[in-house]
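pasting for ref. prot 1 ->
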Amino acid sequence: MTKMIFINLPVADLAASERFYRSLGFEKNEQFSNDSAISMVWSEAITFMLLKHAYFSTFAKKPLANAREAVGALFAISLDSRDAVDAITEMAGKSGGKADVQDKQDLDFMYSRAFEDPDGHVFESVYMDMSALPEG
């Protein structure tokens, strides 16, 4: 079996979150979606589970953090080009999130920009050109 990762995110509005993630290229998996959770597939190995706050709380004993006020995790997603990094970041800003919530990084071999989803979860979109990686 292929190793997979499922990222569970608490969201306030399932419909708004679904629209946001669809606009970024995620695909909804109806088989694992219902009125409390939506499964959004990024790749064969990575799935984001968007969970209503009340449902998310059934999986955790700690209080739910407000991602707009505190950072508990940063999610980095790899893309195929600098243009793809720019495109997904700009689409995030047009689709209910916020673009460029951190300074853009351009290290020649690595290029990244950051955006937030509608609930304030931070994503770094990253392109790496391993052939341009400095030696040593």
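and prot 2 ->
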Amino acid sequence: MTASLKNNNQYENEDCSIQTYLEEGERRAMNLGNRGPIRFDNDGHLSAEIRNAYSDIGFYVFENVIEKEELNDLENDLHDILDNLPEKKGAELNKVGKPAIGVDCKAPTLFWSKPLGDPFGGTKLANGRHPVKMTEPVPAKGSPEETVYLILGSLQFSEALVRAYGHPELLRVAAAINGDDFVPFTEALFIKEPGIGASVAWHRDGTTHWDNPMFDEGIHGFNFMIQLYGCTSANGVWVVPGTHKYRTVDIKEMVTRSGSERIKEAVPMICKPGDVVMSNRQVVHGSFANTSPDWRVTINQGFHRRKSVLNVKGGGLHGAPAVYDEARVQKRSSIICKAIAARQQKFPNEKPYLYKPFEGKPEIFKWDKNSKADMHDYNLLDFSI
């Protein structure tokens, strides 16, 4: 991160057992065989090696996906977003007295936590899917009372995020995993500020299809996780490999057996700037409070199979219960077309992705003043399954 955001303060050293846990987890993670560049076979299909590793483990690290120019654009927009957040929770103005972003949104947008807190663990929030409270370290004196750690509907606040959403290689991967008629889930920014960043208690995403007779390892979709500054064992997401394959998993038992919330089987996502993780939403995952000196900013882009969404009643953290009919699926999916058009304006020499559900409808692939205005509160139409 640039000097204006980088915090060089040193935090209190973690005890030896935590350091050992982080180091051992990182060693296991780097030996899983689930990392490398995006690769397609001669027939245009996603490499079988990648698909198999993703299926076995539940996540895959695509290396060097986002290039330096685009990372710079994303960072510049991140600065703008952070500068325009409400001065404090409940405020309508930013720190210089201008209207803050997110405060006029009807959809869930800004999520706050006390420094190094765990806002979901052990609560009934998000359908109670975070059953165990994470340790909440004591923040340094002078820390803010609360800070934004999660922003939903993030595309409405940044054109660079919109362009990244139209990345042709990532969309090709989405089609390979969820079919050519794949649809969106939601988009988000996770912000793990050093010495402040909140934890996310162990959980599995998904609320709708656990009892579905057609249940399989991909029925609740996946997330791309673009890493702006990279992530480490100290500030990154941890995953329990293979747990995406099961209908039921006892997270409390995992924690009890491990003797603490440091689940023994878990491994961290280790990434460099510009790497992108493809993570199954059903895998057990979580992250610890960020007591490290390093920022983590993760740009989430979620995708579903169309058949997991169409005419299904969804609900949860990302929206009120609703039946997702064809009209809603089409309207929400058209955001992908806007992103492709926005990206083409910025990168005219790049071959754009052809999104099959809107093939032959060039009028949908637009990025102009009206398109931008339509993005306000677009995530009211998210598919929360």
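Residues 326-346 form the longest helix (21 residues).
The two ends are 34 Å apart (CA to CA).
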